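Closing statement on the flavin-adenine dinucleotide sub-project.
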Amino acid sequence: MPRKIIIIGAHAAGVDAASAARKKDRSAQITLITKEKKVGYSRCGLPFVLGGHIESFDDLIVFPESFYKIMKLSLLTETTVTKIDPKTKTVDIKDNLGKQQSLSYDSLIITAGATPRVPKILGLEKKGVYFVRTIEDGQKISKALKAAKSAVIIGSGLVGLEVAVACCERDLKVSVVEFLPCVLPFLLDNDMADRVQKMLEEKGITFVLAEPVEEIIGSDKVNGIRVGQRVLPADVVVVAAGVTPNVELAENAGILLGKTKAIKTNSKMQTNLPDIYAAGDCVESVNLVTGEPILSQLGTTAVRQGKVAGINAAGGKSEFIGTLGSWITQLFETEIGGSGLPAFMAEKYGVNSISATITSKTRADYFPGALPIRIKLVAEKQTGKLISAQIIGGEEVTQRINALSFAIQKEMTAQELAKAETCYAPPVSETWEPMILAAELLLRKIN
Ligand SMILES: Cc1cc2nc3c(=O)[nH]c(=O)nc-3n(C[C@H](O)[C@H](O)[C@H](O)COP(=O)(O)OP(=O)(O)OC[C@H]3O[C@@H](n4cnc5c(N)ncnc54)[C@H](O)[C@@H]3O)c2cc1C
């Protein structure tokens, strides 16, 4: 009898789980079930369609129908899994016409993802207020922006800022409201975040920080928001206040949640129930610096965990060791990225840290097109072990963040990084690589 694998959800984690399971077990019956009509598309690309960098939302579909056929995967769209019964090893499903049935599994993988967090703000039900998660959300926002002159974005995380930039690129007057005191508040230290904010202000975006939105105003359609004593005009409001893991189905089946209230798994992505795995935005991960549970909620983490879950669910052996939450974005022409535990987070976890920040150039000084790049490195004070890298501007930020993420993961010290070898040619780099200069300064401060 072929092994029956059921996957709940068909996005980053789900599709990667299916693909990995298929590679491991050529004869397994693999079924993906999702509530959504469109599947296997990149949520990450939504802001860039809004900003006009990508022509159509359909261009975001990474896995077209042909993929499921080639991989021999059954795909049930617009179908909801309503119950998991671990005793009978079945799931109950209901399609968009109301038809219900029960499917049995040998292995089950839950990749139910996350849902936009709904902040407690009066007036969220008004026309012109949007959340941003699905292709349909993107299409609605895009349509609304055509007739709009002003937009307010609630939340200054990665998604909030990317959407703010997109609105600005469409010539709207844009304000971002954030209830914490700086932009990218969970990703950057204040000194770096201030620079990002300044860069965006120079491009015309207005910020209201450290104040929660009190009310969305307008009759049935939004025409502004009230924050503190101020009213900001808005024809469109986009709420980007983070996401909440979808755990209800798992919890009802007796699957344990962790400290973060997301599904708890071991490094094989196994839940506490036999033959049930979970991956992606609905699970908690281990932070590689602190060893503590965290919510990663990044596509990169989702695909890695999905792959591990898929291999194990198909009888193989694979592990996901944890994450540094390495991230990258591009806001206008500025690349910004980070990895590890920023200094302010280190303090929260009781890690005694020390940091150094340098500004350098990305090419030889005399070479046309050299751009300034700012790098902040944070290390554990006692050991000199690197724990965070944050970069703003320049070129090749992605690959520098990747290199520094490898360094943090391998517990490299500032001393080791300061002596690491890098390459050089005038059109593409400086003689002294900026990462090395940052490590040297950090080492001097440690000593
Ligand atoms: C605008 C935006 C930009 C982003 N940019 C980046 C980026 O640049 N880099 C990055 O790393 N990450 C980015 N992310 C995050 C990334 O998209 C997510 O981490 C990733 O989508 C998580 O994948 P997932 O498969 O775990 O969950 P999801 O993508 O949430 O998919 C889960 C699916 O399961 C379905 N489902 C849930 N419950 C059921 C049920 N009971 N029955 C059937 N189906 C169910 C849901 O409808 C959903 O379709 C971005 C996210 C957004 C919204």
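DSSP finds twelve helices and 25 strands in the chain. With this model delivered, the sub-project is considered complete and its resources will be redirected to Aim 3.
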